[in-house]
Amino acid sequence: MAARRQSDVSAYAEFVAARSASMFRTAYLVIGDYQLAEDLLQESLVKVYVAWPRLQDVAKAEAYTRRIIVTTAISWRRRRSFHERATDELPETAVPDPTERVTGRDKLWSELHRLPPRQRAAVVLRFCEDMSEAQTADLMDCSVGTVKRQVSIALGKMRERLGADFVPPAPDASVVTP
């Protein structure tokens, strides 16, 4: 493998420094777990670094990285081992606290987390990342119609599960919390 040009390494380092916080937000919203989002971002940035010399237009590196984040997250969620989680409490002894109230944001987040990977990615990209249907379709490597269908089905499921009396929380700039 040929040595990387210093200009490629510098351009990549500048890209990571400037855009990694935004990319982390996308990774967190897509995968739903802070530590897994860090791993997802790291793995995605490694893939971008490997492909960096082949990128025709470095200005499209962010879109390319988001696409890698989404496809890698979908791939991870398909693995059987992804759904295995360590817990501090055994399921048979865990008793939910009846006095604990669930906030609207927690309910919304929970329902978003229950969606299948492609539906979740479509909702996150459309509404959390505020991307157009065309941009979302491009990142997900599908048609605009597929994005519309995935979003429609996902929102229908969420409405059904949350009920008619659910009032969504006001938009908040601090969506990502560790």
Tell me about the largest β-sheet.
none
How many domains, in number, for the residues?
2
Given the structure, what is the number of helices? 7
Please provide the ordered H/E string of secondary-structure elements: HHHHHHH
Class of the largest domain, according to the CATH hierarchy? Mainly Alpha
CATH topology of the largest domain: Rna Polymerase Sigma Factor, Chain: A
Structure explained in plain terms:
There is one protein chain. The chain has helices at 6-31, 34-51, 61-78, 104-114, 117-128, 133-140, 144-162. 21% of the residues are buried. It folds into 2 domains: 8-82, Rna Polymerase Sigma Factor, Chain: A; 104-162, Orthogonal Bundle (Arc Repressor Mutant, subunit A), CATH 1.10.10. Helix content is 63%, strand content 0%. The chain is built from 7 helices and no strands. The N and C termini lie far apart (39 Å). It has 178 residues and is an all-alpha fold. The longest helix has 26 residues, at 6-31. The chain is globular, with a radius of gyration of 18 Å.
